[in-house]
Amino acid sequence: MSLVEINFDGIVGPSHNYAGLSLGNIASASHKGDTSYPRAAALQGVAKMRGNLARLGVQGFLLPLPRPNHALAEALAYDGTEDRALRAAPWSASSMWTANAATVSPAPDTRDGKCHLTPANLVTMLHRAQEWPDTKRMLEVAFGNGDHFAVHDIAPVTFGDEGAANHMRFCEGHGTAGVEVFVFGRPGGKFPARQHEQSFRLIARRHGLDPARCVFIEQNPAAIEAGAFHNDVVSVANERVLFTHAEAFADQQGAYDAIRAAFPALEVVEVPSDAVSLEEAIRTYLFNAQLLTLPDGSMALIVPEECRESAAVWKYCEAMMASNGPIREVIPVDVRQSMANGGGPACLRLRVVCDPATVDPRFLLDEAKADLLDQVISEHWPEQIDPADLWSEALTTQVVAARTALLAALAITELD
C-alpha cells in the first residue's frame, strides 16, 4: 500500500456570506456586513486545488453542507428577529474550512494500523457547532473503507475541539510513523480559547496513539488575543519542518524541546517578531499556508496573495527562498474571498495520509472533475450575497438548488 498525503479542500458553499460571527477572528469581524461573492470564492478554491493537483499529482475535496439549516433555525426558535447570530448562523458556509473538519491520525501512527478521524465538535461558536453531524456523514462516505479508516464520534461537548487546525505531525516521510503535536489554549483571555487540552488527550487515546509519540503544547495567549484563534494562524508543519512565528507558543523554547524529545530530527524555521510582527503575520496569514513536499523532495509554501502585498512579509519570504533552508519556494494564491472571512490556504484543507485507492474516488480531483466543478459553480452559485438577502425565498431556493446540482454532478446521492 502506497501512503501519500492528500489535501482535501473544502468547496466554498453557495451560502458564503460575511456575517462576522466568529469572535476572535479579526478578518471575519472586519468584514461583517460586507457583500460576499460565493461564485468567485468557490472558483478561487478550485483554482487553488488545480495548482496543488499539478504539483503533487493528488488532491481531494469535501462538499458544502446543507444550507440554510432549517433544523438549527427551528431549534433557535428563529422568528425573523434581526439578531445577527440567530439570523445568520443557519446560513454559515464555514464548513469550507476543512482544517476544522476533523483530527486525523494516519495508519503508521495508530495501534490498529488504520487511519483514524474524529470530527471536531466546534462547540465554541454557534455557527460552527451545527456542522459536525453532516461532516461526520460525509467523512463516513469519503472514508468508508472500514479496512483502512475509522471515523469516530465527536469529543464530549464539555471540551471544545477545533480539529486539525490545532494539530501538527512530524515524520521522516508522510508514510512513516510520526509524532503528533496537539496545541491547546487556556481559557480566560480576551477571546475564547477554542481548543481544549482534554479533548485532544481523549482523541489521542481513541486513535490508539503511542503516548511517547504525542506532544501537548499550549498556544501563546497573546497570539490568541491578537487574532490567532487557531494554531495554524501562527504555525505550520510538514515532515521534519516547523515553520512558526516566534510568539506562537506559551513557552516557545519549551515547545521546541518537547517536540525534539519525541522527534530529534525537528528543523525549526522561526520568523522573528522584528522581521514580521505577530499582527502582520495574522493580517497576511503567512503561517496559514500549505507547506508541501514536492516530488523532487524540496518544500514549497503556498501562501495568500496578501503575503506578496506586505513589504515586511515578502522581504522575509524572499530572504528565506535565497537561504539554504528547507523551504525553497513560496507560491502566492488568490483566495481573497476566504481571507476576508478569516480563512487562508491552510484553513481550506484537511490533510489525510492514506493510499488514494482506499478513498471513495468521487472525492478525488482530476482535471475533468475540476472542469465539472467550475461548470456547476459558474452555473448555480450566487454571484453575490448581501446580508439583507438571507432568508429571502429567492436566495434560499438558489442555494439549495446549487448544492443539489453539485451532488448530482458528482453522483454523491448519499448526502442529498
Offer a concise description of the structure.
This protein is 33% helix and 18% strand. The chain has 416 residues and is α/β, with parallel strands linked by helices. The two termini are 32 Å apart.
Care to describe what's here?
Helix 2 (about 40-55) packs antiparallel against helix 14 (about 365-380) and helix 14 packs antiparallel against helix 15 (about 395-410). The chain has a three-stranded mixed beta sheet, with helices on one face. Strands 3-4-5 form a three-stranded mixed beta sheet. About 35% of the residues lie in helices and about 20% in strands. It has helices at about 25-30, 40-55, 70-75, 85-90, 125-130, 130-140, 195-205, 220-225, 250-260, 280-285, 305-310, 310-320, 335-340, 365-380, 395-410; strands at about 5-10, 60, 100-105, 115-120, 150, 165-170, 180-185, 215-220, 235-240, 240-245, 265-270, 290-295, 300-305, 325-335, 350-355. Helix 9 links the parallel strand 10 and strand 11. It has one domain: Succinylarginine dihydrolase (L-arginine/glycine Amidinotransferase, Chain A, 5-stranded Propeller). The protein is built from 15 helices and 15 strands. The protein is α/β, with parallel strands linked by helices and about 425 residues long.
